[in-house]
Amino acid sequence: MQPDLPDLPTLQTFRQCSPLVHCMTNDVVQTFTANVLLALGASPAMITAPDEAQQFAAIADALLINVGTLTLRQTEAMQRGIDGALAAGTPWVLDPVGVGMLSLRSAFCQQIISRKPAAIRGNASEIIALTGLSHGGRGVDSTDSPASALPAAQQLALQTGAIVVVTGEVDYVTDGARTLTVTGGSVLMTKLVGTGCALSAVVAACCALPGDRLENIAGGCSMMKQAGAYAAQHSRGLGSFAVALLDALSIMGEPA
Amino acid sequence: MQPDLPDLPTLQTFRQCSPLVHCMTNDVVQTFTANVLLALGASPAMITAPDEAQQFAAIADALLINVGTLTLRQTEAMQRGIDGALAAGTPWVLDPVGVGMLSLRSAFCQQIISRKPAAIRGNASEIIALTGLSHGGRGVDSTDSPASALPAAQQLALQTGAIVVVTGEVDYVTDGARTLTVTGGSVLMTKLVGTGCALSAVVAACCALPGDRLENIAGGCSMMKQAGAYAAQHSRGLGSFAVALLDALSIMGEPA
Amino acid sequence: MQPDLPDLPTLQTFRQCSPLVHCMTNDVVQTFTANVLLALGASPAMITAPDEAQQFAAIADALLINVGTLTLRQTEAMQRGIDGALAAGTPWVLDPVGVGMLSLRSAFCQQIISRKPAAIRGNASEIIALTGLSHGGRGVDSTDSPASALPAAQQLALQTGAIVVVTGEVDYVTDGARTLTVTGGSVLMTKLVGTGCALSAVVAACCALPGDRLENIAGGCSMMKQAGAYAAQHSRGLGSFAVALLDALSIMGEPA
Fold first, then answer.
1. How far B24 CA lies from chain C's nearest CA (Å)?
2. CATH architecture of B7-247
3. C interface test, pick of A238, A241, A245, A246 with most C CB neighbours within 10 Å
4. Any idea what DSSP says for residue B41?
5. The pTM is what?
6. How many Cβ atoms are within 10 Å of A245's Cβ, its own excluded?
7. Is the pLDDT at A185 greater than 50, yes or no?
8. pLDDT at B255
9. Is the N or C terminus of chain C more exposed, i.e. has fewer CB atoms within 10 Å?
10. How far apart are the two ends of chain A, measured CA to CA in Å?
11. So where are chain C's domains?
């Protein structure tokens, strides 16, 4: 257990609330994202047509927008999803994958961060790029340390009103005034595709929980780090790490 | 083994025939669907462009239409796929994921159920919604019991000429006159994304087998339930459950 | 270890160079492809919008074009990706999945093989179909033996300037003049979706390594075959085979 965060209470609340999370996410991580949410007791749904995205975002408990494999056509559907979310008071979360140098996603992210996201989760390079201070990382990987992105994260939080989450070896969760720190996890999480994207879906789900949102999101980050640490100890390589990570998320907090 | 169904004969026929199944399915379950079919000895192919979908449906032994992440563009390709299937006598199967409240898929499903599907497989809420009696479940999850959907399933079978499969704790397979019941399985199957969607692909493959179609489909449902029960006994959580499920499907019926 | 190929040197170079591989690949294999590359130490990114594809191909160390679930819209993005790759000197690799009878991909593959691919990897039926000598296999599966496709592979290599890789029970890697042979592996690799597609991504990564390209690609094929043989020995069925394959790729070449 992490000594610095009340994570098990978050987990219990999470399982009790079972948030319905509308994930508009990239092509690479759909299955893993759905299974991570299911393992934690949430209910995922991926709805992509513009009309349906708007309808569903109004029903869902939270909406995730992830631009990893963004196309022009999807920007329209995502805008419609945000329309539905804002009209219904559904919190929505941005994962600005690879933002910085790539043109379509950079323009799109700059546009939608003015639409009152509840949270933004990215790696250090993405958060720095989103504030316009750099051109991003190497492909979808960060080339900056989380600590170096903390000032950018705080600025972005104050600018957008969102809780900003910078993840990496250490996770920082900030609303610009308060900052929580989450440690632990395993370097293997950076070697498995989709762990960051799935965490963004967990962050979205945490935005639907009752209580303090900053603490709930930090609790969500802590659940993932704990699962990652468990999985690193119960695996032989990348394949069994992925299996053990889902195992950990599904058995976590249950009586042994 | 299920005492009420001749499942192993279905499995042997399945492996011998090795149906070529054209899957037009949603973005979330493509990999898992393909591996479930491969584990059972079938040959999956996912072909999505309109022209190619029509060409391939004429070659395939069965076609699956799953509307889980439907877009307007895909409705055209799916119609072309059904054109090819009907012209060639290829059986096609509908999985009406999330039908009910969401507009595009609801209108599309209502339209294509008049095009002589060989089978329709859904959860209870989807089958009830397809008959126009309700507005569907919670996201893509059912809020009704399979038994409560049996009258709707029988009505839908008589209306469309399809064999209708309602799956859940108990599976019902009906042509409107005869109804077979499949029990067993594990509640963990509802916690892993894609088990229902993959079952629909298995149902499609079963429509290509020689013999009684109703019994073959019930045999397909039984294979999945048996694999689920095996996997529940050989896993620690959601990740190892998914692994054990594919293991079970691939070793099932082979000499120990 | 394969006695006929210097594979461990390739692996060490691979891990040291950590190629950034831009994968424009089909919907079914995205996650597995990314994890195979990550397991070997490469860095995958899937970028799909036309403008971004062109931008990213110029930054990446290699580009993969896989036509498994090709749509008309994607052909434009892929052409733009190839534009970016050629302008920047980034090697690009074609995986002509299911080429032959299906119209869109067949015309597209015929068009782009004139655009100086660094390598082409396919199964025997695909390589034969690409030379116009047949109409392809059964769905996405080969109905020809790798050896029977060797003359077509050599002809295709001379015609396009690409290194052509025919994979199956035996892999042949040829530039038209020299041909390397890679043996080993396991028949289970044909039962898991995406092994061939992921190998094409590895081949693309190998095109970015220093040294002899023909030997590097053969080394990449050998790494996959060794991982497959390991996985066959450490698994009970299809699910655990997939897990063990990723485990093998990630621990291969590391001190025990």
1. 10
2. 3-Layer(aba) Sandwich (3.40)
3. A238
4. T
5. 0.95
6. 31
7. yes
8. 65
9. C
10. 15
11. 7-248
pLDDT digits (tens, 9 = 90+) for C58-110: 999 999 999 999 999 999 999 999 999 999 999 999 999 999 989 999 999 99
Distance CA A57, CA A84 (A): 5
Interchain pair A35, B141: CB under 8 A: no
Q: Does B238 touch chain A (CB under 8 A)?
A: yes
CA-to-CA distance for A205 and A73, rounded, in angstroms? 26
Interface residue B27 vs chain C (CB under 8 A): yes
The ipTM is: 0.94
Using alpha carbons only, how large is chain C's radius of gyration in Å? 16
- d(CA C81, CA C40) in angstroms, rounded, equals 24
A251 touches chain B (CB under 8 A): yes
Q: Kindly identify which residue of chain B lies nearest to residue C194, measuring between CA atoms.
A: B31
Contacts of A70 in chain C (CB under 8 A): 48-49, 52
Q: What would the CATH number be for the domain defined by C7-248?
A: 3.40.1190.20
Locate the DSSP E strands across chain A: 20-24, 43-45, 62-66, 92-95, 119-123, 163-167, 171-174, 179-182
Helix (H, G, I), strand (E, B) or coil at A61: coil
Q: Which fold has domain A7-249?
A: UDP-N-acetylmuramoyl-L-alanine:D-glutamate ligase (3.40.1190)
B243 to chain C: which residues are within 8 Å by CB?
239-240, 242-243
Closest Cβ–Cβ partner in B43, B52, B250 for C102: B52
**Which residue has 């994968």 as its token pair?**
C23
The number of angstroms, rounded, from the C-alpha of C161 to the middle of its chain's C-alpha atoms is: 16
Q: How far is CA C88 from the centre of its chain?
A: 21
Both tokens of A216, joined, read 């709930």
Helix or strand (DSSP H, E) at C25: none
Structure tokens at B241: 């459950």
